[in-house]
Amino acid sequence: MRKNWIGIPVLMILLLLPSLSVAQGDDEILTPVDNSPSANETELQPAEGEQLEEPDPGLDIPGIVTVQNKPNDAGDQLIVSFEPATNSEGIFCYNVYRREFGNVSEDAWSLIKMIPEDEPYEFIDGYDPEYPIEPGTLYEYRVASVSIDENEYFGPICNAEIASVGEIYHTGKTRVLIAAAVFMFLIFYYFGKAQKGAKMYLRPIAGIEAIDEAIGRATEMGRPILYVPGLSYIEDVATIASLTILGRVAKKIAQYQTPLMVPNRDPIVYTIADEVVKQAYLEAGRPDAYDPDSVFFVTTSQFAFVAAVNGIMMRETPATNFYLGMFWAESLLLAETGSLSGAIQIAGTDAVTQLPFFITTCDYTLIGEELYAASAYLGREPKQVGAVKGQDACKAIIMGFVTLALLLGIVDLIAGTHTLEWVRHIITMPVVD
Predict the structure, then answer these.
(1) For 429, which DSSP code?
(2) Complete DSSP assignment for 232-301
């Protein structure tokens, strides 16, 4: 009986222990996190000797915006300047916003310019094509100081009291107008002189002088002549000059009755080249000798065209190769193959990057504008000769100025004078204000 009295309380304690344990666990989960400042105060305490950074109370704002019409433009630019903040400390840059006058929507503002704090506070609005200026339209501007953490502090909204207006005459281009007038006068002067039958001297060009020799060599050897009018299109000036030379060359070939091959890359160039050669044979009095298969279209693919022409060189072994016109990466492939076939080669192009390849692999090379002068040299037509002589006269005037400046510079260096600076001031002074 005594054992039962002791066992009953022990059994009740054992049954209550799990419930006490669960209740204790629930108390830990439901205990709220102490977020009071007093709880975090310990973690935010600065280290010894360290000072907390003061919160940014707000940067100084920029002043008013001034807008001026930009002279000598098409009415699509404005000169915008603004007063910077008095205290620039903490300012990273300035953001300039613009919207049309009368549009009160805040979404109408466009960020048109971001100016670093240490750069000039004036710029030309309308220079960026993404934010064009409409002539005759009034705008509003405002500028914001931008802190390092990219917070903006806006200045006052300023109305541009002036709209952009275009000018008919650019006063800064007066010297260009005078130079153009002198150039045109010289062109027409020599053009009239050539029409009256005056004999004018043109500097001999070795490549053009060798054309007759090259055609004669092919005639003696009984082998054809290959003429490549470049790989560009008809709107290229070099292609037009090449077709003009082709007419002169084809006329001489017609007189000598030498076979001619003219491969083309562009269909339009092919059509015009065919007509040019046909007309040349007609002018030479040998229309019956014209071969319709002498001018032919190959392909528009660049290197496929080169492969086809190189195959013609190796199979037909022409005695003379002409490469006149516009060329790109294929210039060396063509000229090197022609050199290996033993042909005499005459090249000409205005592509500066391809000239070294032609100079090293061809017998004669027309450099740059010599390609344009070749047609005048061959045809001796008054218009072309007058144009070439007018250009030469302009070059002589420019070279005279350069020589005079060189001499004055040497005199100033020796005598310690400033005559060159005086001449420069005369030339650069405004002609029309």
Answers:
(1) S
(2) S-TTSHHHHHHHHHHHHHHHHHHHHT--EEEEESSHHHHHHHHHHHHHHHHHTT-GGG--TTSEEE--S-
- Taking only the tens place, the pLDDT of each residue in 197-233 is 888 888 888 888 898 889 999 999 999 999 999 999 9
- Long-range pairs for 97-103: beta carbons < 8 A, 24 or more residues apart: 97/141, 97/142, 97/143, 97/144, 98/125, 98/131, 98/139, 98/140, 98/141, 99/139, 99/140, 100/137, 100/138, 100/139, 100/140, 101/137, 101/138, 101/139, 101/140, 101/159, 101/160, 102/138
Rounded Cα distance between 302 and 276, Å, is 23
Cα separation, 48 vs 66, in Å, equals 50
Residue 72 exposure: Cα atoms within 13 Å on the Cβ side? 7
In 3-state terms, what secondary structure has residue 129?
Answer: coil
Cβ(238)–Cβ(326) below 8 Å? yes
**Between vectors from CA 333 to CA 331 and to CA 334, what angle results, nearest 5°?**
70
